[in-house]
Amino acid sequence: MLTHVVYDIEGTTSSTGFVHDTLYPYSRERFAAYIDEHGHDPQVIAQLDAVRELAGEPDADVERIVWWLNHWLDDDQKVTPLKAFQGWIWTDGFAAGDLTSHFFADSIPAIRRHHAEGRTLSIFSSGSVSAQLAWFGNTPDGSLLDLFSHHFDTENIGPKRVTESYDLIASRLGAPADEIVFFSDLVAELDAARDAGWHTVGVRRQGDQYFDQGVGDHLAIFSFDEIDLSGDAPTLVDRAANTR
Ligand SMILES: CSCCC(=O)C(=O)COP(=O)(O)O
Ligand SMILES: [Mg+2]
């Protein structure tokens, strides 16, 4: 039985366009002010140091650190310190009512359905845990946080394209690898999860950047409505049978 479902966010449950066109600019405009306001907070100090280390510039001042954050954002490099600052800034933005998360029409019903079927649901995203909590806590359908047991990110687990990250998640979940299904838009992530023994489903979304690209030899869906999780492995819904 597929006892565990792990979802990617951007490109899977939610639109890449929304993340890049709404969330990214929102953080870009606020890095400097956020550091100015929270620069004495130990967790902020730790991430300022993480920027310096990753940039290889141990003496970088705040102006330079903001430059690096914007540089990584421009390149869409999903590095942990950038994601940490974004998560904190977005958390404030959701709390202020500036932001509401985006989900494709099928995503929230599918998350509710998978939960109602008795599966344990988790997130593994490059978006930080604080970003995930704000995202799922402020959906157009209210908070979905009760539906999730775990939130995994690159800080508490590791890179998403590395098999060991999926091994570590399975051990944190206490679940056999072959009872976990992972939904993602990135083939490299799907490959890493499958190498860890997980089931994988590639998601393609109209209008998103990878829409015209394949998902390698993973199962491919355009909507969660196309997948059946009732067996020991995910299968595509038999549309013909459904319309008879
Ligand atoms: C609410 S998470 C914000 C999206 C984000 O910053 C991100 O990097 C998402 O990456 P994913 O691993 O979910 O594709
Ligand atoms: Mg993604």
From TrEMBL:
Its EC number is 3.1.3.77. It catalyses: 5-methylsulfanyl-2,3-dioxopentyl phosphate + H2O = 1,2-dihydroxy-5-(methylsulfanyl)pent-1-en-3-one + phosphate. It comes from the Bacteria. This is Enolase-phosphatase E1. The gene is mtnC. SUPFAM superfamilies: HAD-like (SSF56784). GO terms for biological process: L-methionine salvage from methylthioadenosine. Binds 1 Mg(2+) ion per subunit. Bifunctional enzyme that catalyzes the enolization of 2,3-diketo-5-methylthiopentyl-1-phosphate (DK-MTP-1-P) into the intermediate 2-hydroxy-3-keto-5-methylthiopentenyl-1-phosphate (HK-MTPenyl-1-P), which is then dephosphorylated to form the acireductone 1,2-dihydroxy-3-keto-5-methylthiopentene (DHK-MTPene). Pathway: Amino-acid biosynthesis; L-methionine biosynthesis via salvage pathway; L-methionine from S-methyl-5-thio-alpha-D-ribose 1-phosphate: step 3/6; Amino-acid biosynthesis; L-methionine biosynthesis via salvage pathway; L-methionine from S-methyl-5-thio-alpha-D-ribose 1-phosphate: step 4/6. InterPro entries: Enolase-ppase_E1, HAD-like_sf, HAD_sf. Monomer.
